[in-house]
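Recall from the previous lesson that a structure prediction takes nothing but the amino acid sequence as input. Here we apply that procedure to Outer membrane protein assembly factor BamD from Ignatzschineria larvae DSM 13226. The sequence below is the only information supplied.
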Amino acid sequence: MKAKRLKIFMVLAVAGVLTACGSSSATKDDKYYGMTGQQLLDEGNKNLEGASYEIAVQHYEAIEARFPHTRLAQQAKLNKIYANYHDRQFDQALKGIDEFIRLYPNHENIDYLYYIQGLINFDRARSILDKILPPDRSKVDQKQMRDSLASFLVIVEKYPDGEYAEDAAKRIIYLRNLLAEAEIHKANFYLDRHAYVGAINRAQYVLDHYDATTSVSTALYIQGKAYQALGLPELAQKSIDVLRYNFPYDARLKEFGYKNTPEIPADSEVVEVVEYEQ
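The prediction returns the following tokens.
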């Protein structure tokens, strides 16, 4: 999935804010002494576009120090987050995002920050090895996946008409499928070791929290097998019936003795499932 191209914010401020001293912190010991706010911004953006991220951050921090509590400082904070993100200084970027959201919760570009926050946690959840070899998706860091999911959910819930909503929605589908697969991995682990109650609980977690994902059929299958192994035929049949209704062509139904898909009772519980392309 391709990430949207992130943008450098070029918020225009009045000339007085850009050129004023703003703060008495500027001294001759400051290597940027004598530079106006506009000059600092221009130099920072020039270095940012040239991938000299560390130097760009220095210019933005100079703006924050000399022109605090101004729109210029807000812009510098935003661009510094962007620079840290592309320099893979993820801790600094996340720290800047948290600070900005706390200080300016109603800023017009808050959705952009949640978007970067989601991308960072998504990227950090994968190891270098995963980027070289096909990853075992069930072993990806789940906490950071959940954090990433939470950021994208904020975007679609609070900013549904924003620039990042469509891409965030696609990533939500992908992440929910990924997290569901991780739970299935645990459920299979328990099933293989005859820890049937654990397998049932992990499968139920998928059904409760990750409905409409590609792992629902496997969760139902695991429950059917585990309930059978525990000698609970009624509960097993309930899971099998839901599996048959929603996934009539699932090859695993043969393990329960079904060669075709007859109708099931009308009072059977049904889970509606939608398959998504990742």
